[in-house]
Amino acid sequence: MQYLNLCSVLVLTYLMIIVKRAPALIRNFCFQSFFLFLATLMIAWQERSLDLYVIAGLLFVLKVVFIPQALHRTIRKIKAHEDIGLFINPQLSLLWALGFTCLSWELSRNLVGLNDITKTAILAVAFFVVCAGIFLMIFRMTALAQIVGLLVMENGIFLLASTVAGGMPFFVEIAIFFDVLVSVLIMGFFVYRINKLFTHIDVNKLSRLKG
Amino acid sequence: MQIFIILGIPFLLAGASLLIKRPKSLGILNSFGYLVILLFSASLLKEIAGGSSPRIFFNFICLDLLSVFFILVIAVVTFAAALYSIGYIEKDIIQGVISARKARVYYLLFNLFCCSMFFVPALNNLGMLWVAIEMTTLVSAFLVGFYNKKESVEAAWKYIMICSVGIIFALLGTILFSYAFSVSGLAKTFNWSEMTPVAHILDKNTLRIAFIFILVGYGTKAGLAPMHTWLPDAHSQAVAPISALLSGVLLKTAIYAILRFGIILIRGVGFAYFAHLMLILGITSLIVSCGFILVQKDLKRLLAYSSIEHIGIIAIGFGLGTPLACAGALLHVFNHAITKSFMFFGAGNIVNTYKQHNMRAIRGVIQALPFTGIMILLGVFALTGFPPFTIFVSELMITIAAFRQGAYWVAALFLLLLAIIFGAFIHQFGKMVFGNLPKGMLRAGEPLSGKIAFLFLALIISFGSIAFILIKKDFIWMAQKLFLL
Question: Residue B28: CB partners within 8 Å, gap ≥ 6?
Fold first, then answer.
């Protein structure tokens, strides 16, 4: 069952890399977070720990419901073009993603060895999700895609922390959730401002400061 | 006990900025608050320096010499910035750049920013340390985009994005550090006070990989080249007192985080690995910043690139790794914080009077702003490492250490780049300070609070070196104790 979750996360990350429109990107992010929530819930059920239930609940509220809704609303409000502006076309992006997958497999094999294959697989997926986030941030032009990229990276880190390091201390986990919430709100605020001042959210065209 | 007062006062001041209506009285209250913090942090340093083991409060706050030293650095600079803010914000209100309501927002953000910075060196949990550093980014992004112009919003966006990505790598590194812990069969922990004593039995391979992530992550925040790209934009667009805080202490909190992990790494895998990484990044920063300083036209960007240079010097100091070099680097953390905020105050006054950043158009500062002109001249010599100013002492310590250790190439490159940067600074600032005043410019007034801030810092810059030479032995002892050399 845990493998199924893991596969879903992997597939959804691939989908995020190849989509062209902002609503689709956000929807995929929402699904990815949902499977992450399922995975956490299962671990919580296995270990019967209240802390993990709380964390899973927060994950659901924040990343599955609140943040995607907020991002959808932002798109509607600023009436931005739905295109997220690809520097690299979907086919080439897919090749990059394949490369990332191999790379993360190598890295995780180096780090934990092949004794516990489940752990290695989870670690590889986590690294891949982080890489995909960076990829989205670098090779997509709009500010909105960059926010989603950052969130995807954070999802990857969450997966890594909850499986490999046996979860972070409860207190820290809550603080990080709070942090994610605040950073998304602040970034959303800046997207509004950029849209107001420049009448677009194409970050590639922000080039007043040089040298 | 003092630490709770230090952490509490900024919170109270933030609350006060919601209640008090007049910006000027708010500013004065602010300065008093930070003066109290400064006094308490000095007494805290005295207390901790006496004891031998770290002091832990509720397993949440843990203080050793390194953390208290950084708290003192932050306290000095925030006090000066609070003083300088009074006059600066007053002037902005009179000129109609911002409203009185926005001035209160400024003070609110200023206090939250300072609060998050004070938390960084005080925390015991490395995960919470990460949260505190991310908080500094989020709060200061508003202060970078404060004037709401196209340039400043662009700078704020770049700042928040690049630093957030960088810092996610740091979180990855933090998790891997804790993973190294669980691999070694020890109970899971995130507290550095528990990690440091047992660092030698941690898994070496994992520690090495984890530290790379830490260095990339917090190195982005510290402005080490080649991850420095956000720094010139953010520092040149922020409100002047905030530029001083960003350059003076925000970068130092990231350096603190690197050192915290570095200490665990050094005890785990030895010094050579840490030293090589720091040396490479330090020299790269020095070279990159040198190039940009030579061709720079914008006053505040020039100072921002100079910050990259000094962060590079600090990294080289830690990279050389002898007790003398580490002591020099620690001193340099303090000296750069003071001198750079001093220079940013000067630049703030100049930009406010001339209404532009372009150094080609700024001429005759000493006629328009006599006090600032003199101070900035003093600051240029101090910043480029002229005796008898404090930066000279720390740079000399690092150079001597390099020669003693036989790192001749490093020493030669270091001195060459410093000489080039010195030349560039004298060239740029000489024209600005002494040239002919543009037509139609009048002598502008300088607010009293700004002058007090200048004098306070100038005193430390000029006479601190004597104090440093007297307490050099203590510093070397401290460095030795911290890094187990």
Answer: B86
What's the CA gap between B472 and B468, in Å, rounded? 6
List the single residue in B with minimal CA-CA distance to A146.
B161
Residue of B161, B163, B190, B229 to mutate, interface with A, max A Cβ within 10 Å: B161
Residue A165 in this model has a pLDDT that exceeds 70? no
Interface of B with A in 230-249 (CB under 8 A): 232-233, 236-237
* Sequence ranges of the domains in chain A: 2-205
Q: Residue A186: which of B155, B160, B237 has the nearest Cβ?
A: B160
- A190 and B157 within 8 Å at the Cβ level: the answer is yes
Q: A149 CA to chain B: closest CA distance, Å? A: 9
Instruction: Give residue-wise pLDDT tens across range B387-423.
Output: 889 999 999 999 999 999 988 999 999 999 999 999 9
**d(Cα B431, Cα B360) in Å, to the nearest integer?**
9
Q: Considering only CA atoms, which of B181, B189, B196 is closest in space to residue B128?
A: B189
Does the model's pTM come out above 0.80? yes
- B157–A206 CB contact, under 8 Å: yes
- B484 pLDDT band (50/70/90 cuts)? low
Could you tell me which residues are beta bridge partners of residue B125?
Answer: B191
Tokens of B225: 């080249």
Task: Provide the token pair at B261.
Answer: 């992990």
Residues of chain A positioned with their CB less than 8 A from the CB of B150: 197-198, 208
Name the residue ranges covered by the structural domains of chain B: 126-483
What ipTM did this prediction achieve?
A: 0.92
Beta carbons of B175 and A168 less than 8 Å apart: yes
CB pairs under 8 A between A and B: 115
| Residue B485 pLDDT level (bands cut at 50, 70, 90) | low
Which element (helix H / strand E) includes B61?
A: strand B61-63
With cut-offs at 50, 70 and 90, classify the pLDDT of residue A87. Answer: confident
Q: Which residues from chain B sit within 8 angstroms of residue A162, using beta carbons?
A: none
**pLDDT tens, B63-101?**
988 999 999 999 999 999 999 999 999 998 998 888 888
C-alpha torsion sign, points A70, A71, A75, A78: positive
- Taking the C-alpha atoms of residue B3 and residue B21, their distance in angstroms, rounded to an integer, is 29
- C-alpha to C-alpha distance for B118 and B445, rounded to whole angstroms: 34
Of B127, B165, B176, the CB nearest to A172: B127
Chain A environment of B192 (Cβ under 8 Å): none
Interface test with A, best of B120, B123, B131, B235 (most A CBs within 10 A): B131
Which distant-in-sequence residues (6+ apart) come within 8 Å of B288 by Cβ?
Answer: B225, B226, B228, B308
Distance CA B274, CA A69 (A): 44
Q: How far apart are CA B332 and CA B326, in angstroms?
A: 10
- CB atoms B175 and A157 under 8 Å: yes
CB A186 within 8 A of CB B157: no
Distance CA A195, CA B157 (A): 12
B134 in A contact zone (CB under 8 Å):
yes
- Dihedral angle over CA of A55, A57, A61, A62, nearest 10: 10
Cα of first residue to Cα of last residue in chain B, in angstroms, is 31
Q: What pLDDT shows up at residue A46?
A: 85
> Rg of chain A's alpha carbons, rounded to an integer?
17
Q: What angle do CA A47, A52, A53 make, to 5 degrees?
A: 100
What is the enclosing helix (H) or strand (E) of B62?
strand B61-63
Scanning A105-144 for CB atoms below 8 A from B yields: 110-111, 130, 133-134, 137, 143
CB A40 within 8 A of CB A52: yes
